Amino acid sequence: MEEMKKLSSFYALVFRQKYIQRWGLMRNAFPESLAAHSSECAILAHALATIGNKVYGCDYDVGKVVTMALFHDVPEVFTGDMPTPIKYANPSIRSQFKSIEEESTRNLVAKLPNELRGEYAEIFDSVENDQKHCKLLKAADRLCAFIKCEEEERFGNSEFVGAKKGIMERLKESELPELNYFIEHFLPAFRLTLDEQ
Questions:
Q1: Distance (Å, rounded) from C-alpha 28 to C-alpha 160?
Q2: What are the helix (H) ranges across the chain?
Q3: How far apart are CA 196 and CA 189, in angstroms?
Q4: How far apart (Å, rounded) are the C-alpha atoms in residues 118 and 109?
């Protein structure tokens, strides 16, 4: 029994992201798991931070923003993926869901051995409070959503047309030069076939 007390389920729970499906209110030609989304979001966050540093002379912590992207949706292993129209329907629902996500985060961190809790609490805190890197994370998250919408539309699923338009409007509202650089130099390639790439 003493041996069981030393076991931690934190990483096993993190790996359950592969069972959480995104875009639950919409018909998907290509189902997307939370794990796949987090991986793609981390790649795009890395790209934006690198562009910011190398092209615009910023001082982003690339490793930090990638880590934030990898863990940004982990609390959803307890809550599932709440569809955006519901999650943001009104301030009260958003506030209540934020409280639920915070409780999920606390439950996850509590599953770690004491000596690791601070490290992961800091990651989850950064996802919420590090404004400098959160802007990149949010941009990467939106880029992921836009790319998903384009992929669905390209394969004949009109379910995502409205979402794609709304997401692009939000992307255009961004003042991040890194994002605009990515949209200009890299986003069009996502529309190409493998042979065209």
A1: 9
A2: 2-6, 10-14, 34-56, 62-71, 76-79, 84-87, 91-110, 114-129, 131-154, 161-173, 177-185
A3: 9
A4: 8
Instruction: Enter the DSSP assignment of 158.
Output: G
pLDDT at 73 over 90: yes
- Please give the pLDDT value at position 5: 62
| CB 61 within 8 Å of CB 133 | yes
Going by C-alpha positions, the residue among 186, 183, 191, 187 that lies closest to residue 155 is 191
Domains with residue ranges and CATH for the chain = 35-188 (1.10.3210.10)
Highest mean pLDDT, choosing among 14-28, 53-67, 89-103, 182-196: 53-67
Distance of alpha carbon 135 from alpha carbon 26, whole angstroms: 27
Instruction: For residue 121, give the 3-state DSSP assignment.
Output: helix
pTM of the model: 0.90
Beta bridge partners of 21: 33
- 80-104: burial string, b at 16+ Cβ within 10 Å, e else: ebbeeeeeeeeeeeeeebeeebeeb
